[in-house]
Structure formats: C-alpha cells, structure tokens
Amino acid sequence: MEFTTADVRMLAIIAISLLAVAHRTQGSDSLEELMKKHPTWSFEVENIETFIQKSLNEHAHNLGGGLDRGLTEKILREKVKRSLAPGATHIVRKIGDPKWESDPLKVPSYFDAREKWKDCASLIGHVEDEGPCHTDTPAAIAAVISDRYCIYTNGTFRDRLSQETLLGCGELCTADPYQYYSWLYAKETGVPTGGPHGSSKGCMPYTYAGCDHSSWYTDSKGLAGKNKMNACKGQLIFDHDCPKKCSNQKYKTPLDKDRKKLTTFYMTSRNEFCIRNEIMAYGSVLTSVIMYNDFLEKPDGIFQKKTNRKFLAWDKYFKIIGWGEENGIKYWLCVHTWDTWGDKVFKMPRGVNYDWIEFMLTAGVFDFLG
C-alpha cells in the first residue's frame, strides 16, 4: 500500500490530536519533540496493543515460521519492548518527508547507497562484528550513524563512530539488545570515533575481536572450522564503564570534542515505499529479524526459508542499504555484523515482512531540521 497526499495529511492531523500522549510515545524522540524539530515531516501514532494484534492477524497464516500463537505473541512483544522507552503505550513512525519522492516512478527499482554516496561506500558496506557480546545493536547502530554522518558531511568525514562507546554507555555486553538506549545516548550525549578491535583508530576502538557466532547455538565447529575463527561461546565478556576519556592514548582529540551528536532518532514507516524513500534520502536504516538456524550461514542469493528450521533468538540486528529485484523476487540489500560471513552484504525478501524485517525500523539524522 502506498500513501496518498490525503492519507499523509490525515495521519498528521491524527498525530497532532494525540499530543496528549506524546510523553508515552517514545520509540524515538517524543512526538511533540519530533514535530517541533521537523515540522515538515509527517508522523503516525499507533497504540502498541493494536499494533501487536494487527501484526498477529496479518501473519496468522505463517506464525513465526511454525511457532505457536502464544510464543509468537511473546516474541513480538519482546521486539517492541526493546525498541521503545520504558512505559511507552504508543508507537510513532515517520511517514512523510519533503525529501522523499511522492511519485513511485521516480523511485528506482534498484538502489545501492554505496553507489549514490561513493565517498562513504567503505562505511556503508560494512558493520563491525560485535564479538562475543550478547547485544549487537551498538555495532549496527554505530554503523548506521557512521554512514549517515559521512553522508551529512558530503563524504568529508569518513571515520567510524564507536560501538565501544554505545556498548558501555547505552547497553551492556552481557545483556540482550535494547536499541532504544543506544539511540538515546547518540542523541543526548553523542558518539566519538572508534575503529575495530586492534586497529588503534579513533577515540574508542572496540574491545572484542570478531568470532564464530554459531558457537552460541551449536557445539559443532560449523563456520569456525571453515574460517578459523575463535568461538564466541566461552569467551570472557564483561560490562564496560561509560568512558570519561579516550581509551586510545595516541588519539589527540579529547573525548567530548570528538563526539558526533544526532539531532533526532525515529522509527520509519512499515510501508515498503516509505522505507525505500528514507534510505534514498538519508542512507542506511537499522532493522532486525527473528533469527532461525538458517541464518547461521550466508545464503546463496536471496534468503529463502528452509524447511524444519529452528527458532534461535528474538532479534538479529543489521542495516539495510538498498534494494533490487532478482528472478522476479524483490529484495532488500543488507549488511550483517558477523565476520564469519566474509562479504557481509546479503539479500532479504522485500515487501513481505520476511521474518519481521519491516516490523520496527529505526534511523536518525544529524543537524537537519525540516
């Protein structure tokens, strides 16, 4: 379904009428703050309970790849909770922007952000491995904001922003992902530079080396046997303190002067056309899927569900950098966090909410008010 101008205006009116609940609609900035900072954008507001029940009904024919209804609802509630502020009752999504193309004919059938923003291509095509930590959102969010800051500066700033900082200040290595806190820290405090493990680049390089993530779910050698990577399972992990100075003593810029601060962060529309518009206008977006065991190895072509696959985890986070179509199947162009995949770029079915990929997408912008 595509939004008409009348639809957008109506949803904007609905959003204004719901300002009374703005303080409880946080999966982003509050609705009131978003509308103040971005008066030309449009937003929709949806009650969480309504959203969950509607999502269950929409996918009743395929309940999470064969899971029973009760477990599926539990999964959806957990995914929603990890994306919103504690106590939130509503979800706010961005559904309109003057920078978006309203004419579907002007939105290409193929798009790769690396090709549009060539000076930022090395950032856009990569996400650092999260290592043995339980949470992967600091890695994926740091990659999204690195992409977007590079694009915002027209490619003049091409350093990576620090997942290490988000891990210590927004989330915990020993805890499950909770993306809201990483986005909030990036907006309220800002994220300094930080290269990968062992790089000695930037203010806060990452502590952990990449590892074989299949070891969390199987005792077999699996991918580690092919890539000679240490298993994640069994590695020592610990929660980091939020830094007060750069850990890289060779880096000369003080921590507070090195920070890059988001203007706002927000959820995007679930509408496939709107998601493409968002990526084409600003760069990559964060998403996640419910993870099954067919996600442990990179697919040959576009992801297709394997028979008798097994549920492994509520969330696997990564970023979307483009889209296309192959053999009649529309796909999202994505970038994984796991080094075991080698080339981390892969394809997921588009427009069908495959494994809930179009369920809760998030992004942020730097110093753009419009």
UniProtKB/TrEMBL annotation:
Q: What is this protein called?
A: Peptidase C1A papain C-terminal domain-containing protein
Q: Which residues form the signal peptide?
A: 1-27
Please name the InterPro entries in this protein's record: Papain-like_cys_pep_sf, Peptidase_C1A_C
Q: Which Gene3D superfamilies match?
A: Cysteine proteinases
Q: Which GO terms describe its molecular function?
A: cysteine-type peptidase activity
Looking at the keywords, is Signal present? yes
Entry keyword set: Signal
Classification via SUPFAM superfamilies = Cysteine proteinases
The Peptidase C1A papain C-terminal domain covers which part of the protein?
107-365
List, in alphabetical order, the GO biological process terms annotated in this UniProt record. Answer: proteolysis
Question: Which ranges of the sequence are coiled-coil?
Answer: none
